[in-house]
């Protein structure tokens, strides 16, 4: 028996693999369709450029009436990302709509990297640097970009 | 794409999608998309529209969205709305039902056109030595269907036309007894040794056709017959349609009153007060959504749907607890290494695919399909 939520996730996956938005990818874990792994490339012309940031999306049966829990696994330095990797993004909270799908979520997170919102900071230091010391902000972000590659390289060597 | 088909195969139901249609049939993809609910992305099931903005959804989808959502607004345009603005969308339901019947045929024809085109190109490739890039260009054009129709389809169609498709009410001459027999009965008629067949009486047929004619313009005639024929009025003679159940504000009620509500609907009284309320509220949603469907489910079926919903909720709660105990992000990341490596390749392909042609897309697709366990099917 498949449920409405699971059928919807299969459709989301179909859409994501037949018509992938630029610079994002995601798919369900092989053993559990309710947990997805995703990768977002840092958008070009931002300090995040070339970063390969990893995320997980966790769904429950209330999807798509309720948004999934979206978390960065890679360490982020961004005004709207908490130290735990959780995001402060309106469409994942009070501006959620059940018409959104995984492709829409991933592209929204990608554009959040592009346009941080320092007015609702999740990381006070990042927000402050973003407003007052762009040079230092960029430097700090670049270190996370390099770390994001390291994750992959170290693990692939193992 | 392999991934998607692997997934679709594991689902117990067929999970259809606009992308089932070949890429160069963009208009069919669009048609398919417009007949889908923006919430579940399935073909509309008991479609309704919101009188406040005009957007359509499956009845159950929008009712659940308004119940679960934080704000009472249209999921598509965010215009404020409420359950009382939900109106049946009869024409849309008829369109979708007709489309559901036609979809597999249309899909078959579209795929057939593509494979014929490919075959023709392969055979052309064998006979003359036209340079390859030229053909590739033709394939990618939007005129595939048209060109197939013009030169390829016709000769083959004449072969196919040996099998004439007859109306199921058509009469044919029996080759043995020479009597007229209904085409749908002819095989059985011959097998049974040519008994006398009951033919649809012309008189009755005429009546049906008149009724159709009169019903057609929908009361335009204004005559007594015309009105009798027009669909809407016939409902009046049968029992009145069941009314939707009213929503309840439970916080004003005592435990006893809530139990009474469950009893009147014939629902279980297990669990605590919170579960009672949730069960009753979900029952109202299921019941009212069912009223918007022309193929309404039985009460028993609805109760089974309610049971399933409760079981899923209970399981969700359990899994949530299990997740709480698992907070080792780094460990998880390591365990998912292979998966992430694949995703990085895909994401890179999607970037390059957008900027320099579609060549790179093939690379991503050549990845091994990820197998999704049977978990998809279990509840």
Describe the structure.
Chain B: It is an enzyme of class 2 (transferase). Chain B: Pathway: Protein modification; protein ubiquitination. The complex is a heterodimer of chains A (158) and B (379). With 158 residues, chain A is of the alpha+beta class. Chain A contains 4 helices and 4 strands, in the order αββββααα. In chain A, helix 3 crosses helix 4. Chain A is globular, with a radius of gyration of 16 Å. Residues 153-158 of chain A have low confidence and may be disordered. With 379 residues, chain B is mostly helical. Among the domains of chain B are: 3-115, 2-Layer Sandwich (Herpes Virus-1), CATH 3.30.40; 164-196, Double Stranded RNA Binding Domain, CATH 3.30.160; 250-325; 337-379, no CATH class. Chain B has 16 helices and 5 strands. In chain B, the strands form 2 sheets. Chain B has a 3-stranded antiparallel β-sheet with strand order 2-1-3. A two-stranded antiparallel ribbon of chain B has the order 4-5. The longest helix of chain B has 38 residues, at 90-127. The two termini of chain B are 26 Å apart. The chains are: A alpha+beta (158), B mainly alpha (379). At the A-B interface, helix 1, strand 1, strand 2, strand 3 and helix 4 of A face helix 1, helix 3, helix 13, helix 14 and helix 15 of B.
Key traits:
heterodimer, A: 158 residues, alpha+beta, Ubiquitin Conjugating Enzyme, four-stranded antiparallel beta sheet, disordered C terminus, B: 379 residues, mainly alpha, Herpes Virus-1, Double Stranded RNA Binding Domain, three-stranded antiparallel beta sheet, two-stranded antiparallel ribbon, zinc ion binding (chain B), DNA repair (chain B), single-stranded DNA binding (chain B), DNA damage (chain B), Rad18_UBZ4 (chain B)
